[in-house]
Amino acid sequence: MFVGLDLGTSGLRGLLVDEAQNVIASSETEYDTQHPLPGWSEQDPADWIAACKEVLLDLKAQAPKAMAHLRGVACSGHMHGATLLGKDAAVLRPCIMWNDTRSADQAALLDDTPSVRDLSGNSVFPGFTAPKLAWIADHEAQIFAQVETVLLPKDFLTFWLTGNLTSDMSDSAGTSWLDVGKRSWSETLLSASNMREDQMPQLFEGTDIVGTLRPDLASELELPSTVEVAAGAGDNAAAACGIGALIEGDGFVSLGTSGVLLAARDSFAPQPASAVHTFCHAVPQKWYQMGVILAATDSLNWLSRTLQEDPAHLTQTLGTSLEAPGKVQFLPYLSGERTPHNDSAIRGALIGLDINTSQQDLTRAVLEGVSFALRDNLEALKSTGARLDSAIAIGGGSRSAYWLELIATVLNLPLEIPEQGEFGAALGAARLAICGVTGARAEDVMTKPNISTTIAPRADLVDAYEEAYASFKNLYPKLRGDHA
What we know:
The chain has 19 helices and 24 strands. The chain is of the alpha/beta class. It has two domains: 2-231, ATPase, nucleotide binding domain (Nucleotidyltransferase, domain 5); 246-418 and 450-484, ATPase, nucleotide binding domain (Nucleotidyltransferase, domain 5). The strands form seven sheets. Strands 1, 2, 3, 5, 13, 14 and 15 form a seven-stranded mixed sheet that branches. A seven-stranded mixed sheet has the order 18-19-17-16-22-23-24, sandwiched between helices. A hairpin with a 3-residue loop joins strand 16 (251-255) and strand 17 (259-265). The radius of gyration is 22 Å and the shape is globular. It is an enzyme of class 2 (transferase). It comes from Shimia thalassica.
């Protein structure tokens, strides 16, 4: 038996599977995010531990016999978070999250530092870990002086499980401290933000075993003391493992709080100026690239709160068959934007409102705006040489048939809808544990899900949406003029 733990932005999910990947039980619990100031986003690592205990105990209550035969665990989790440990591994302050933008100035300085883009393979985004530590040095110097280890969120859980300070390549690639091509910490990148390699955890591939369950924890949770823990993965790499996106041409589009368009790569091919993320995959000698937009379903949730209508109801009013582009345009930069703009200061806009604009018009505009932003991501990926033959659609937004047909048409790319079942980051983490414990090849374990439906682009509307996308693309420079 194997457990995959996915430390999400809003909660932790655990999945118990057998070696054949049959789902035995699942459990999840939520925790809070604090926003002390505008643009700030923090979580208490103690809440992650409490959630992990709750999930593991619930899995044991659901399937006591299966958990008695637990052999392996791995964690996935939200990336880029700065979890700072001091003497005796004491947590020094709340974790600064991936969607925290306070370090925009520090990120810009690091991004302009010679060799940083070349070695890391990426632009430095405010959400990355290195600028967060630079912000700590500038604004919380007493805490910065006490930092002995920096852990990413899921690695803090792995530390709690094993007592070992470790990380995997895929998660570490999002720090701006890793030489992503060589898959090792870079002294040059670390020194750029006044950090040292002895403050970094030991690096492993995602399938490597990094330790066993702590004896005291195994006793407390009444689990086998022989449980091995694999290094795990950042959430998007774990999701790629969960849907079997390992080789060139494979990929997915994720419609969650943020939006992701991911393409697996067989080689390291960065192009930092595109604002595409180029990261190590969770399996050896593989990489992946992705474009990220900060507000996907978050844009729809914003409209839902504003109109006081359920998001599902808003999309249902559009029907299931795609129509021509609407007259209202929406730029989904509610929290700034990553790909392709790397602009934490930009904000969203609705353009073309008139006296007759309806709720349906606004909903259509929001869905179109997010879809066009994903098209920006596709163009950025293409500029690096990445290839997508099709994309598997995952995430909460993929439940809307209208939205999926819209995205397929805007991207001019078939979207594959998996059959009901498990294929997310928690399964990806469990698959990493299976590979680590059994020695099985990733290609044999990380297979693609069965596909229930393939949504083809609407050939009769592709040209109309191409024209609408061209209009959308021209709006960002004009909007940026307000804050440049």
